[in-house]
Amino acid sequence: MSKTFDVIVAGIGGMGSTACYQLAKRGVRVLGLEKFEIGHAMGSSHGLTRILRLAYFEGEAYVPLVQRARELWIETGKLTGEPLFFEVGALDIAHEGSGIVEKALEASQAHGLEHELLDRDAIEARYPFTLDRNHVGLYQPQSGFVASERAILAHTALALHHGAEIHGCEAMLGWEPTAGGGVRVTTDRGSYEAGRLILSPGAWIGELVPTLKPSTEVVLQTLGWFAPARPSLFDLSHFPVFTLEADEGHFYGFPLWQHPGFKLGSPHYGGEAYDPDTPSREPSPRHREQLRACLAKHIPGANGDLLGLKACMYTMTPDEHFIIDTLPGHEQVIVASPCSGHGYKFASAVGEALAELATTGSSRFDLGMFGLSRFS
Ligand SMILES: Cc1cc2nc3c(=O)[nH]c(=O)nc-3n(C[C@H](O)[C@H](O)[C@H](O)COP(=O)(O)OP(=O)(O)OC[C@H]3O[C@@H](n4cnc5c(N)ncnc54)[C@H](O)[C@@H]3O)c2cc1C
């Protein structure tokens, strides 16, 4: 006989770990399944940190969700005794008129977020950037970064504390509906039954839900860590997270934290098509050159020796919005994946929304823009 749960969560990365915690906290009998070890570096959430920006230039409709996520990161960090959110401020730098700073300003104004518009001279006077003549910036003091690897472990620990069962190194192979309206899930170790199934497999969504393969594209991205000439310039106490629209691409970076190197991400739109089942994650040589070019031109104080490179995957949808919805024809199955390279900051709130969906059938958040019907 299969062991039975209220909810099974497949994929314990950014989204799945928070869903397990939120479900277990509500007294739900939850099983979490993860094909690698918990906290691995093969998915989309590793590399220590992820930016959390409140003034969302991707669409001001995201602001309430990211505000709730920020609250939850702070709350959960307090519960575990190790902060998960670091309020270092965020600076979006872009060419005037490109829409990025303008949309971030719109989001700030629409939601009453603290912000400061800076011209090129003001940015260069404050931070070690060398910018183009028409660069402008929007600074948001309440933004910062989330400790993503730490957060997955912390949420898993909290889920266990509340009675969840979590199985690392156990891959879900498939699922089928049961006569009672639930699901039977098969793994490489056994089978389980539950009333509901949450699929949060990140880049593997196309394997578990083949109908979503045509609407999702997995791309490889690269993170680099470089020795700064004067580490104090990039210290957590006064250097913010940033996004930088440059002629060479749209880069992003972080203050020094838990690593001696300055962390810079390869261009947001410069990913290379990738198969998530590739056995190891080799960083892209092209990305390495792009990172170097950005440092040389715009952040020369961090253009020192290479200390590390890591490859990571984005799972893109055509409109770059997320997928959070029940599967058509199978209300007992919820999909929470493809976060198009900007999803981590929301994970704490997505976990809460998933727990609400699985237990009550609806969420306090308007998840309409993440619905599957937009692909039909
Ligand atoms: C380089 C890089 C930089 C980024 N920067 C930012 C940023 O600054 N800010 C931001 O908000 N977002 C950022 N993102 C995006 C963000 O990290 C992702 O949207 C987020 O991590 C996705 O979380 P996830 O839970 O969907 O995927 P994952 O964390 O990868 O979790 C999916 C999990 O499912 C498991 N799994 C898959 N298939 C199965 C199966 N069959 N059975 C069991 N388990 C399975 C996987 O092993 C994995 O652990 C970045 C992404 C990358 C790659």
UniProtKB/TrEMBL annotation:
The name this protein carries in UniProt is N-methyl-L-tryptophan oxidase
EC number(s): the record gives: 1.5.3.2
Q: Which cofactor(s) does the record list?
A: FAD
Which terms are listed as keywords in the entry? FAD, Flavoprotein, Oxidoreductase
GO molecular function terms listed in the Swiss-Prot or TrEMBL record: N-methyl-L-amino-acid oxidase activity
Give the main EC class. oxidoreductase
On whether Cytoplasm is a keyword of this UniProt record, the answer is no
Which InterPro entries does this entry report, sorted A to Z? FAD-dep_OxRdtase (IPR006076), FAD/NAD-bd_sf (IPR036188), MTOX (IPR045170)
In this protein, which residues make up the domain named FAD dependent oxidoreductase?
6-357
What residues form the membrane-spanning segments? none
What is an example of a Pfam family matching this protein? DAO
SUPFAM superfamilies reported in the protein's UniProt record = FAD-linked reductases, C-terminal domain, FAD/NAD(P)-binding domain
Q: Which Gene3D superfamilies match?
A: D-Amino Acid Oxidase, subunit A, domain 2, FAD/NAD(P)-binding domain
